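BUG: 3D viewer hangs when loading the predicted structure for this chain

Environment: internal workstation, default settings.
Expected: structure renders.
Actual: progress bar stalls at 90%.

Input used:
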Amino acid sequence: MDEIRAERLRKKYESKQNFPGMGPGKGPGRGPGGGRGPRGAMATGKPKEMKKTLGRLWGYISRDAGKLSVVAVCVVLNTVATLAGSYVLRPIINGLAEGKGTEVLFRGLVVMACIYAVGVVTQYLQQRIMITVSQGALQQLRNDLFEKLQKLPVKFYDTNNHGDIMSRFTNDVDTVGEMMNNTVVQLISGTINIIGSLCLMLYTNVWLTILTIVMMPVMLWAGKMVTTRSRRFYKAQQAAIGTLNGYIEETVTGQKVVKVFCHEDIAEEEFEYLNHDLRNKQINAQFFGGIMGPVMGNIGQVSYALIAMVGGIFCALGRFDIGGLTVFAGYSRQFSRPINELSMQMNTIFSALAGAERVFDVMDSAPEAADIEDPYHIIQRNGVEYYAKEADIRELEACGEDSKAQESVLAKLTQVKGAVVLENVTFGYVPEKTILKNISLYAKPGQKIAFVGSTGAGKTTITNLINRFYDIDSGTITVDGVNIMDIRREDLRSNIAMVLQDTHLFTGTVKDNIRYGRLDATDEEVIMAAKTASAHSFIMRLEKGYDTMIEGDGANLSQGQRQLLNIARAAVSQAPLLILDEATSSVDTRTEKHIEHGMDRLMESRTTLVIAHRLSTVRDADATMVLEKGEIIERGSHEDLLAMKGRYYELYTGMSELD
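Structure tokens produced before the viewer hung:
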């Protein structure tokens, strides 16, 4: 790879890894200029501090307080057993040194066996219970992360790489789990071990204890030096993993595009660059994480040698017994062992903390703006939907079974019909660039309104605003005279059916995918929706008909068949407002003609907003809006627009083409 290309790749990916998790946009949302969502890196702020991250992780573990208490008791008993078992050696060695025979040895071994048996049992229990606690914490962490993702706005998915989001659920959560399974127990047992060892060392010999403590600042200083660098490199490693995963996901998903443009070599070059970058960061992270153990271990060996030398002098002078020196030397190792053990796990700890920070970055992302305190709800009575506020709902509930009283209340409510009005709507995905400029239009219930215009004119942006995927900067959007800002998002979106240009099917049967539009739909309603969308005939030709399994986003279906299922999904929803975002763009001309009558049936009694590049599909629209650069430059019926001999006329007659 030449230096110029390497430098370009470095600049391309450097910004993303400065702010882990933020990468190029990908997904069905639209962004500035009406095209795909806003791309590029986006700062998420300074990384969380280690103490704060540990505190949040502890919050997940501490939810199972009862089991943690049992684990704590087991850890204490295990540590006490380990310390007590070591101390039993003192009278045994001293007895043998004084020639008291095997009786002392036998008695001491029995006591040691009983003590260590307690240690074995408690260690088994603490490990078994702690695995249950840690896996429960991980389950809750995944649940919270997934729940958060459902509450994030479309903008989040437009500005984040999907592969990197997946990396939060896999690599990052797995590293957190690895730490929870082992390190938490070692932190607790290590603390108790240090305290217990210190107490027994003081009891055994004060002067040797002082010598041991004097060596501790050296160990702590060395550990801090390595830790500071290790933490930084582990953050970089986790970010590089996310970027590499995102690139793999994008390349695999877009493999056809790669092959069409013969970019296999380019893809290999970029992957090689990212893989090389990850390798370098992993080398640094693993090196500084790996040297912690040897550094601390060697300092511990120096401390052990000093204790043995000074203790030997004390024994030679008759101021210390041999058994006491043996036990103290063992305690000095136990005193530093927790530090050494934790240092050996620095790879796991820092990798887990870096992963946890990335998970919490997502969980701290701003959710969709909250609804107003008293929004309109959409309620259903006798098969008819109405707009109602909480006071209206309470009044209906107070009526009980009194049908006349219910009718009196319902008479005050507005029935959902699907009238849409945009008035002086201005919007931009970013403050410095306005996409829509004072857009005003209306659609009466049951009307079909079409939008045509160049790419980036703002067609899809209008539909995104009606759904409240984004909130407008100024102006108003109303449905049946009610400002959509005053309607709960859930109620608003449940009354809007969308057929997107990009089809998406979920793993499950054909029937399940159609029913996704309304989960309580009966099998008969599903079949009727498929017939409405003219999908019934091809479904019946599948191996198991409506029970045929769909996997890999419908890889076993043609693009046109996938789109027909999406149209059937919209049909089964029975929503009064229908949005077709270039729904026939992936359907061939023959299939398009085949579903034309089905689409007409689908649009009956529904307000329909259609975005299309094929002008033939919008000739029968009640009104067509021609957009350019975020403004409506022409509007009217097909005949009216042709009579104007403006932009629409040029497009229809072929004098001009859509950009």
